[in-house]
Fold each of these.
Amino acid sequence: MQIKRPKGTEDITPAQSYKWHYVEALMREICALNGYAEIRTPAFEHTELFHRGVGETTDVVQKEMYTFDDKAGRSLTLKPEGTATAVRAFIENGVFNEPQPTKMYYFTPCFRYEKPQSGRLREHHQFGIEAFGASDPSIDAEVINIAMTVYKRLGVDSLKLKINSIGCPKCRVEYNKKLKAFLSPKLENLCETCQDRFNKNPLRIIDCKEERCQKQIVEIPFMLDNICEECSDHFDKFKEALDLIGLDYTVDPRIVRGLDYYTKTAFEIVTDTIGAQGTVCGGGRYDGLIEQIDGPSTPGVGFGMGIERLLIVLEKAGIQIPTPPPMELFIIGLGEAGLKEAVRLIHKLRDNNIKCDKDYMARSLKAQMKYANKMNARYITVIGEDEINNNKIKVKNMENGSEEEIQLNQLLEYMKNKQQEVK
RNA sequence: GUGGGUAUAGCUCAGUUGGCUAGAGCGCCAGAUUGUGGCUCUGGAGGCCACCGGUUCAAGACCGGUUAUCCACCCCA
């Protein structure tokens, strides 16, 4: 039986990887511009990190984690998301001793044991950023702007930004009371999951898609209408900052993120072009998280952006990612002497940053021409006995078919000039 | 975890009410008088028709199971 890739995973083949390079390079550029530096962290962590960081009541922790014991009996878990790890590394490496805020980004695989569908994998990749140490609402807006800028620069302008405030622990206590008071008379009309949510995390009931639940909660009090003065003030200034940047948004009191650590700002960037899984970026503020996992009391805000979903958005929008630059020169060696000269030359040219190649398949001249054409080589040259003896070669422009005769020992200079012309 | 769709060449797919030596396009390889690509033409390689069992004289087609994959729910990026 042929071995196949595990369910919900994807291979990124050489013919596809340039797309990843392109979007990652763009993300790095935008991060650098905004003062965010990369952090690289392990793909797995002690399981406890996610129990404490992501939250016991979340679906992610309850049923989606890839957890296993290593040979010494430690419980480890493949990262289901990026923020908890970033926070752990921030604390562990004492990064809070450096000038604040700490602004960083990462690319990471994330693993969740889910049933795959369009835009949903068991291993997916996230581009994420986190800003630690600042509670200023303008940094919430900065974080979101980075996400929006990535898409904007790629040519996507059809996305919608939805924002909400889900309060802080202080106002949430009051709100939960209010929620429960509202819900308890309707409790038996709610679905099973919501009845469970009622005790563990009533806020999530707002998010339920069950029709019977939606019917019951049309007049449910929203967190947004019940946040404390501090949170309300933060939300106002946050919106103001979005306005100053010029970002369009809609306030959606229904946004409740699925991870427990969020406070105040919560946001989603959504599209309706890629199927049911339309959230292309999600994030928010998590002012209690760092303390929660034994770090100094430090506010934070960040997002995760799914790279696979981003690529689907681009594909659906018909946006072409630029292909890598073509080969400058393909050298066709003929005869023993010509083949040797081809080997010598391609390495000499490569040492001088000329992208070039030769045949390795013992192909005929014609077949090599065809191959060079398929590789989109800009120039080709044929080198055999005569060329070597006379020190003269013809370099052919593959775009227009024209040929120029030059001296063999001038090939490097000739190609350098051609390279200059392009730039 | 629940529901529905689909499994035939590297890729995209045909295969008529069960009757083949299982096909096409693209891609790959080779050639079209021996040192010049793209277009065209010719040829070739490549399939246990997902797997296991059943019905039948006969199964790629029908039935059952398994697995994989796609889509949706839940949830999320």
Note: Chain A has a mean pLDDT of 93.
Amino acid sequence: MGRAPCCDKANVKKGPWSPEEDAKLKSYIEKHGTGGNWIALPQKIGLKRCGKSCRLRWLNYLRPNIKHGGFSEEEDRIILSLYVSIGSRWSIIAAQLPGRTDNDIKNYWNTRLKKKLLGKQRRDQQHGRKTSSLIVKQEDNNGLVDPSSFSSSFINSNQISSYWPHQLTNLPSAMSIPYYSNSSSEVFHGFNNDHTSIRRLLTKVNGGHYDHSLNTQFIPHHNNIAYPSNNITQLDDSNLSTLPREAMTSTCEMTSSTHYDHEGVGVGMGMLDGQNNHGINLVNNNNNTNTNDASTSDTTTCGKSSGWGEMSSLVSLPNLESDCNALIQVIGDLEGQVEENLRYPTHL
DNA sequence: AAGTGTTGCAACCGCGCGAAG
DNA sequence: TCTTCGCGCGGTTGCAACACT
């Protein structure tokens, strides 16, 4: 049985907001606040809108000090750095950019920043380092790879028209590509066009180790990560957002031999390392190094949603050029690995 | 000038989580 | 302990504006 709808869909207005609706909502909230109940809000004001819609309109548009468009290079850097380190946690990223909303950043990333990044990649590839055109062995229909879609949309870098990580995500969803590691016989099934897969690959390039279950696999160095007092032991995507910011900003060392195995579960999130193999400074390395004490985090951890809110001052943000170069290096390596693995698959 | 494709952005949707009862 | 409900999030869609042919 499905979830009950939050409002009567038949009697709510959808689509663009009129100036009158905006004015009503804005003046009410400025006078009375939201009352902690968005669902009831539209009825109080007399708006035929869903509460969720009101909330979205307020947060993304009507709220004071909202900035639209015109992202600066500094903001680009922040977005890039945070995307590399935490992925598409737009709300967290937005918390680092005053006046920006998660929706804004998400749109900006999807429509412009990726292009910017890949535009640079293309330019670089045209000038110098050029990914060799891949020799894609033709596979029959039982094969693992659809060579036509690969060669046109992904492999042939001359024709890359999509963007990183879109060039990875653009792979047809039905095409689940086993990913053959160069360094071992492990095989990664289920490479689909989602962020997780992309970031798995990115992390793989970083030198991490994956198990076959496709759970998160990295083992953060126990002594260098501040774990929250509620004993999170699995630093996977699902609980990343609950980590204190020290977990992001402390000097974390990725290691496959040092297990943080608090309860016999030794997993973590590779993206939390302080610096990846390509020299992208993801986090501040001169932050408190003694952060494994939960009490330490209490002094700097903010409240619920503001836990990340002041991180910007702690995040080390290299210049955009070097970030791009480093990311492009990552992308190039990814392509190289995929190329290698396609050419020399080691079927189990 | 008209038709078509692309881009950028606002808004919607569905799901997971946590609080409250 | 279970259920319900609202919030917040990330992904997706729809559409107007713009660019290109």
Note: Residues 3-4, 6, 15-16, 36-39, 51-52, 55, 59, 88-91, 102-103, 106, 110, 195, 241, 305 of chain A lie near DNA strand C (CB under 10 Å from a C1').
Amino acid sequence: MADIRTSLSDALRAALVAAGVDLPAGFSVGLERPARREHGDWSSNAALAVAKGAGRNPRELAAELATWLEENQPEHVAEVSVAGPGFVNFRLAPSWLHNMVADAVAAGVSSYGRQDLGQGRTVIVEFVSANPTGPVHAGHGRGAAYGDAVARLLEWCGYDVQREFYINDRGTQMELYGTSLAAVRAGQPVPEDGYNGQYIVDWAGDMPADADPRQWGRERALADQRDVLGTMAVEFDTWSSEQALVDSRAIDDALGALDAAGASYESEGALWLRSSDHGDDKDRVLIKSDGEYTYLLPDIAYHRDKLDRAGSEGLLINVWGADHHGYVARMKAAMAALGCDPTALEVVVTQLVRLERDGEEVRLSKRTGDLIELRDVIDEVGADATRFTYLLQSMDTAPTFDLAKAAAQVMENPVFYVQMAHARVCSIAVRAQADGVVRQSAHQVDLSVLVHERELEIMRQLSTLGEVIASAANERAPHRVTTWLRDFAAAVHSFYHDCYVVGSGIPPELTQARLVLIDAARVGLAVGLGTLGVSAPESM
RNA sequence: GCCCACGUAGCUCAGGGGAUAGAGCACUUGCCUCCGGAGCAAGGGGUCGCAGGUUCGAAUCCUGCCGUGGGCGCCA
């Protein structure tokens, strides 16, 4: 079927040419969904955009376009009108929505709304990357939900996605962690700046006497992290070890490359990166005066390795917490110093979450051991609600996550509201079968009887899912899908309330058409939830 | 002091160049013969932090200021 957007765009372009407008090179017709129903189904600002360059009055030009379009109507167009300062508005016949419903049902949960933006391009999404010195905490949870949702969205849009977790399994923190475990195991106080959490006591108690505390502690922490992330269905393709980079001499190679590029120098007994040559505030230390690497150096080697694995057309996306935003400039500077394409590395900084329970703040503090583990959040709230709640807002905002509200099984809880919409349409289909309704195959059903405002609203919203997914993927903004789901679920609940599918007084052909409609709605809900990694239950 | 993000309805947040700025919660008022009322519908409520600028058009882009959060280590 012809994409409605393409056919409208082509028609507008033809109308502009017919009106004698010389289109600027690279001109693309602007088409959008008007915010207000009375402005039609699609709207174009083309006349406004070209009027000045063409020396025309925008309203008059728009009127000329509308007249031409009325005489040369694209498929499904019912009415063309001019409004406001010079918008050209299209009102479409319901037939375009009926076609879309049939397409949605045919495509199904496995492919409706898929986009071909990536064309197989490799993307390595790195997220969570918690230190292997303890459990993942609630703050990591947002990164986990977000990173995985971005990965799912990119997959849905045709990218070849790798999910990656970077393990900082060497360095100062790792030493402190090992000595803390050993001290507690021996009944001694933990060293200064050591780890104090209750989990240290628990884990030290499990540690065999002959174990290497660092090595054993690393495995213990990773197993714990993997387990908890698994309970919210976050799985990684690759777990990259910092220590392995050292062992493979990748760090020496990186040092050599930086030296060859003239990007490093010695001073005060340390080795420095000339990051200020590439946009950073100041130069940064790579090797400390005591000979130990800083965090930055292995990370540079790691990103070289990732770029190499992603290939020349590949893209790296890093999801970092707000407390790491200061590292973006130096990391990009390092990549620039090595001659890498700066657009190949994209860092998304997620703002911190304020965690509450019944309005009372729960403070996160890994150092003091006073931390809320992600495990506790999932146990209290559930995996689906945890993910959905983390994805309610833009990553640029620092939202409040109220555990009690997120856990509540009530319609005021957005995740419950959306999942309930899915369960409801599933239950209608079950009910229809129980009532002995024999369903026709979808392509035999006459959908033209679907003209109720509630039905039209479901179809209009469903028709936007593909665009929403595309923009959510492009903007790395899964919350756009969350927002769409809440709106779409509201349309489904309204339909459910006003339009019965089965029952006395419902004509058989309307029952058949509505069964197809709710099937399409089910697909839309399941696809949207799927891109967020949230389940779509058939009953609740 | 410098860097990043944010400031939209009483609260939590969408919208991030277009037309009369939206949703949920809370508040007011209606609606249960029948598919799940764990609902639906209607209503009140906003100088989009402030001041300039760019534009045919700014909540949206730019500059400054104010406020909030985070960062500014040879920790990660």
Note: The radius of gyration of chain A is 28 Å.
